[in-house]
Amino acid sequence: RMRIVKLNAALTAIFVVVSVLAVIVFNSPLRRLVAIVDLLLFAIGVATFIWGYFSAVQRSRGDEISVAGLFFLIDGVATNSVMRLMNSALAVQVVVGLGGAIIRRSTDGVSGSTLAFGVLVPLLGLGLNGLWASKYGTFGKRIIGQVSAPEDEIGKDGVHG
């Protein structure tokens, strides 16, 4: 259960260190490194998002899964400590990604910066949250309700009435 939480914390720490170094030094090797790290974390985020979503769809046959519960671990889906750690990592990813892109808006006087790739990294947090919730989250049992109106409520013209 804690592997995904630890992975999120470790990858977020790597993202923060590389981004802060790139903001401070901003030389060519660090600009390349930050772009590679950001795109790699984004790719991991895409993969875990799809994996978590697919797993959640499978679970939704028996469990009532909400989008907010799946991706933000709210409503008792996760313990408070897991929810706090996972959502804190997501918040750090958002702040560092946006902060780096805002602080270094240009490269060598040309508009645009490799630090702008950092805005893609929060998909890592969303993906890992969804993966954790789909595997270990606590959801209520699915409520099976009537999909269509009973036949006696349908009028002769086929309209509910």
What gap, in angstroms, lies between the N and C termini? 51 Å
Tell me roughly what share of residues is in helical segments. 55-70%
Strand and helix order? HHEHHEEHE
Structural class assignment: mainly alpha
The shape is elongated
Q: What's the count of strands?
A: 4
Profile the largest sheet.
2 strands, antiparallel
The amount of beta strand, in percent, is under 5%
Q: How are the strands of the largest sheet arranged?
A: 1-4
User: What radius of gyration results from the CA coordinates?
Assistant: 21 Å
Number of helical segments? 5
Low-confidence blocks of residues: none
Mean pLDDT: 90
Commentary on this structure:
It is built from five helices and four strands; from the N terminus they run H-H-E-H-H-E-E-H-E. 63% of the residues lie in helices and 5% in strands. The mean pLDDT is 90. The chain has 161 residues and is mainly α. The strands form two sheets. A two-stranded antiparallel sheet has the order 1-4. The chain is elongated, with a radius of gyration of 21 Å.
